[in-house]
Amino acid sequence: MYFFCFGFFSSAYRKFIVVLVGVIVILAAFYRVPGPWFDNHHQYLNGSDQYLRGSDQYLRDRVFSRVLGPKFDNHHQYLNGSDQYLRGSDQYLRGSDQYLRDRVLYDTDLSEYIHAYNYKLPSEYHTDASYKERKILLWYVPPRYVNSTPHLQPLTACPDRNCFTTTNTAYMKDAAAVLFNAQIMQIQKPMPRPKSQQIWILHDTEPEKPDWSHSVTFRTPPWWNLFNWTMFYREDSDIFASYGIVRRKLPSELYNRDLDAIVKAKPKKFVALISHCGTEGKRLEYIQLLQKHIQIDIYGGCGPLKWSRSDDKGFMHMVNSTYKFYLAFENSFCDDYISEKAYRYYKADFILVVRGGGNYTRHIPAGTFIDTRDFKTTKDLADHLRFLDTNHDAYMKMFRKKDLYTSETEALKTVHGNTVVWIHYQFESRALCEVCYRLNHLQKYSKTIERIDKWFDKRLCYFPDDLK
């Protein structure tokens, strides 16, 4: 019947009908056959979107809680715009605190975190921080570089505008956090905790050496289970208190300098400043082995060359314009310990040679410094240093890469009367800002540490084995 009726139409019309039916069949097939694929693909995209959202949240939490807190409200430039973060790589998205920390520190302007103590009280503190909202950080046992501060001092560099520090123990009952410096803590009996939510923090930035670490009172049973957070140079501490940071330079800091001319103008090669001779890290002994192969100028109490300690600026200017390499050797070998030596001198116009127990490449870009651990013997190191010294192109490759970065630290001055008697270099603001952030989000970070002495003993300092 179909063919009978179809025969009544003209040839042209029949062709039109055939084409039309064919189009309908193709469209139907396209709709019906791949449909489930599109549904699955839509599910896949939704799942991927959900995964990326979860990754974004994971990264946000990591950056906020482990690095710099809510400073980065515009952190999506790091979270959403980077394929290497968000495209499903577990090595970046799971367990990578240090990777995130490095990326943020290398690529971010942290200038607002510098010099937290050197600003006048801004007017917004009077309106933004009421008595109930403010968070007081009390240095109950302050380190030597923290000066007496009887009044509340605002942490002006922190994004949370409601945190204050003081050394006045009269604020004990109102303090949100109480800090105890481990090295000089000699309180035998713990004081009562005035409120259950008050956070007690064990703090130190000095190497955990036997000469003091076994005689302090926080190791005794009355103190074992009283601390909530730790704030050390150790990366397993709750708040990472580094001596400094290395970050990528801003475009405005990339000056058009003649780096070749700077290097070629230097008349000397290797220099070190050493004031403490007999150290657990065998620093002087290592340098003496190195001196069998290369000439090293040694300033300070352990060398023949002298410079006034009061003229630190002049010394740095002299070293910066004279030498191609600076030996920044630690006096102690401790896991994660990288002192101010690396951070203070990194920004200068020479190549650092570092020696210590810290993992330097976790904090300083590889290829911008020399680590003695990369060499089996002091002769191997000396051979490499001679190669860089005599091979201008090889030296300049490292020097140019280093010039893309800079370092930050804070000069914390110990003042007696009106006299500055000591300057301690520590990037304290970032650590205190993280404390401030945690106090403002206490529900996420509330905990108690069991046996603080056992946590402390996990990473004691040790003697080096590279004297060969």
TrEMBL record:
<feature type="domain" description="Fucosyltransferase C-terminal">
    <location>
        <begin position="264"/>
        <end position="455"/>
    </location>
</feature>
<feature type="transmembrane region" description="Helical">
    <location>
        <begin position="12"/>
        <end position="31"/>
    </location>
</feature>
<dbReference type="GO" id="GO:0000139">
    <property type="term" value="C:Golgi membrane"/>
</dbReference>
<dbReference type="Pfam" id="PF17039">
    <property type="entry name" value="Glyco_tran_10_N"/>
</dbReference>
<dbReference type="Pfam" id="PF00852">
    <property type="entry name" value="Glyco_transf_10"/>
</dbReference>
<dbReference type="GO" id="GO:0008417">
    <property type="term" value="F:fucosyltransferase activity"/>
</dbReference>
<comment type="similarity">
    <text>Belongs to the glycosyltransferase 10 family.</text>
</comment>
<keyword id="KW-0812">Transmembrane</keyword>
<keyword id="KW-0735">Signal-anchor</keyword>
<keyword id="KW-1133">Transmembrane helix</keyword>
<keyword id="KW-0328">Glycosyltransferase</keyword>
<keyword id="KW-0472">Membrane</keyword>
<dbReference type="InterPro" id="IPR001503">
    <property type="entry name" value="Glyco_trans_10"/>
</dbReference>
<keyword id="KW-0808">Transferase</keyword>
<dbReference type="InterPro" id="IPR038577">
    <property type="entry name" value="GT10-like_C_sf"/>
</dbReference>
<feature type="domain" description="Fucosyltransferase N-terminal">
    <location>
        <begin position="132"/>
        <end position="244"/>
    </location>
</feature>
<keyword id="KW-0325">Glycoprotein</keyword>
<comment type="pathway">
    <text>Protein modification; protein glycosylation.</text>
</comment>
<dbReference type="InterPro" id="IPR055270">
    <property type="entry name" value="Glyco_tran_10_C"/>
</dbReference>
<dbReference type="InterPro" id="IPR031481">
    <property type="entry name" value="Glyco_tran_10_N"/>
</dbReference>
<protein>
    <recommendedName>
        <fullName>Fucosyltransferase</fullName>
        <ecNumber>2.4.1.-</ecNumber>
    </recommendedName>
</protein>
<dbReference type="GO" id="GO:0032580">
    <property type="term" value="C:Golgi cisterna membrane"/>
</dbReference>
<keyword id="KW-0333">Golgi apparatus</keyword>
